[in-house]
Prior knowledge:
The structure is a single chain. The protein is an alpha+beta fold. The chain has two domains: 2-124, Immunoglobulin-like, CATH 2.60.40; 192-310. Helix content is 46%, strand content 17%. The protein has helices at residues 2-21, 147-173, 192-206, 214-233, 242-250, 256-274, 281-315, and strands at residues 24-29, 33-35, 40-49, 63-65, 68-73, 77-80, 85-95, 100-104, 119-124. A hairpin with a 2-residue loop joins strand 4 and strand 5. The longest helix is centred in the C-terminal third of the chain and has 35 residues, at 281-315. The radius of gyration is 31 Å and the shape is extended.
Amino acid sequence: MKHWFLAIxxxxxxxxxxxxxxxxxxxxxxxxxxxxxxxxxxxLTLKVPYGTMVEWNPFATDTLSAQLDILKRGDLQRxxxxxxxxxxxxxLTLMTFDTGYIQVPGLQLSTLNAFTDPIQVYSxxxxxxxxxxxxxxxxxxxxxxxxKEMFPWLLGLLVLVIIGLAVWxxxxxxxxKVDENGEPVKGPSIPPYDKAxxxxxxxxxxxxxxxxxxxxxxxxxxxxxxxxxxxxFQVNAVEMTTDDILKEVRxxxxxxxxxxxxxxxMELADLVKFAKYSASALESDNAMTDMTxxxxxxxxxxxxxxxxxxxxxxQHA
Length: 317
């Protein structure tokens, strides 16, 4: 009887091993020479035995690696081959802004333990033939605008006019809320310091940079700083560039270390947002800490300055 159990167990083990060996994951590019800023296709294929449950990797982030952006995710296609294997395919459209050799990393296409092999492509700029003379620009092609083309714009303009008139009528004729003394009732407002701390805590709980959403993380972080500086110190920071904000904050005479935390965080955010810089986990974590320190310490500086001004006013009264 023990021999039968042993034989049955060995049989199922061999079946599982054979199934695992039949799982194949491949990744291919149509050309290993790609151009900077030009999309190229990555074809992904997973072959599994019939009846195998496949949970496909959704590739939910905007990047495949620090050098490769995902522009488009094609539809999943499922077919079968002559050996009754299930073939699952998807095409990713990628783009890189770096030059030189770029590695497409090995990818796990599903929860099955099967990975594609890494692929190395070469990214180069577009070659320009400097021996050829400059050619004149093509003149604009004149094409009459038909009423059919104008109709959506005219309809949209009419809708905007109607909405504008409705808003104007509402604002002009609405009755403001008043209290028992006939004074307008103002809604509750959150002090800039309290709002900034609350927004920073909410941003920290979202864990954007941990999920690879660096641009969203740094955009939110700098927006919180701009709103706080504008509300607390009456600086039009929301409409300013980073350099203009730093110039205005420098005139507030904060300590050098406190000013340095704001400066390093704002400049790092600009690199991430506009230069595709891939900030490290340590840099992203320090950015949150430095911005929180700036809000707390600058508010303490503001309170101390207000107390000093009140004391001087009492002494001269």
